[in-house]
């Protein structure tokens, strides 16, 4: 895919994430946001905190890569390495296979509050700015270290795709948790007096 349509697609997907945040998550109360379908599953807040932890690493890494990036035309083809394809395949939203997360990226049992949603929104706004900066950058330059093994580097385009797909995956997970919470609330016995 060419640079401009590739970045526009990612831009649209980030806006969709912000729309879900605004319409589905932010209107919910703390009980809904902290609900866990099982002891080993994540709550909505834990899903977003996991994404915040990744954003704390990838947003600055992308900013640095973009600042040092070579300029390229907007009609350049965005390429993918084996590492980039593999990284994307593991986190793409359609891949429902459970992935084990790194211990420091696992928010389970964390004390979380509404601040998680605020931080998530800030990271999305930063990502939108990074996508704008990427419009004139060579997206095929290997410049973004992989979080868990920083010697390996993703191409800038691969890293952007990875970040957005990972966020979509966990946003869908958060939406499923909310659906389970709503279903549980609808079937819970109610005391009528």
Walk me through the topology.
Elements: H1 3-25, H2 30-34, H3 44-67, H4 82-91, H5 115-133, E1 142-146, E2 149-155, H6 156-187
Antiparallel strand pairs: 1-2
Helix pairs in contact: 1-5, 1-6, 3-5, 3-6, 4-6
State the secondary-structure class: mainly alpha
Model regions low in confidence, pLDDT < 50 over at least 5 residues: none
**Proportion of residues in extended strands:** 5-15%
Count up the helices.
6
The coarse silhouette is: elongated
Largest sheet: 2 strands, antiparallel
Total beta strand runs: 2
Helix content: 55-70%
H/E element string? HHHHHEEH
Strand order of the largest sheet: 1-2
Radius of gyration of CA atoms, rounded to a whole number = 18 Å
Briefly, what is this?
With 193 residues, the chain is mostly helical. The chain has helices at 3-25, 30-34, 44-67, 82-91, 115-133, 156-187, and strands at residues 142-146, 149-155. It has one domain (3-182): dinb family like domain (Four Helix Bundle (Hemerythrin (Met), subunit A)), CATH 1.20.120.450.
